[in-house]
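Hi Y.,

Following your request, here is the sequence exactly as I used it, all 232 residues.
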Amino acid sequence: MDLILEGIVTAFQLLWALDPEVLGITWLSLKVSGLATIISVVIGISVGMIVALTRFPGKKFVVSVVNTGMGLPPVVVGLFVTVFLWRNGPFGFLDILYTPTAIIIAQAVIATPIVMGISIAALQNLPSKLRLQILSLGATRLQMVGILVREARLPLMAAVMAGFGGVISEVGASIMVGGNIKGYSRVLTTATVMETGKGEFAVAFALSIILLMLVFFVNYLFTLIQQRERPR
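Below is the corresponding structure, written out as tokens. Let me know if you'd prefer a different format.
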């Protein structure tokens, strides 16, 4: 209990003092996970919409694959991304292993199935005749898609929050592809693991508390957007 209290005090001291290293780690965590979430939202909702609104052979198999991907272990993703970005790997020529860019790629791979799976479920949960009703009123297919997205905006925003939550809190892939390099690719989760390994539990608790505060703040903003106009 004393360690937790000491961690809380340390967290506020670091924030109050505007510690450059902590602020840098916090900003990098937000930037990396934010960009990864944006990528996953663009891909996940777009592909999820195609899967949900079209009929094709093997659709149930595709949905099963997406749902399985929602539980991808971060260390497995980190392993595959590392192999692909390794010097002798298919994309080794990019020379981005152990950089924030590599972390963004790994986190986007983790978040995309989460966003896609929830998006598919959200759009499939809409009334089956809603599309026909929209089209019968003279809407184009693009307008129909826009209306369907608005109708499913609450669960779709939940998909965004789930995707962000899944990557801002992961540690395995970030360490493997980012290298936890001080001042360059170290994020809050990897820094917490490092401080714990060094026995600096108060600092580790402080970083954990800062991470929780960051997650709460971002999700609070998402919730304000999600709940801005509730359906009646």
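The chain has a mean pLDDT of 89.

Thanks again,
Q.
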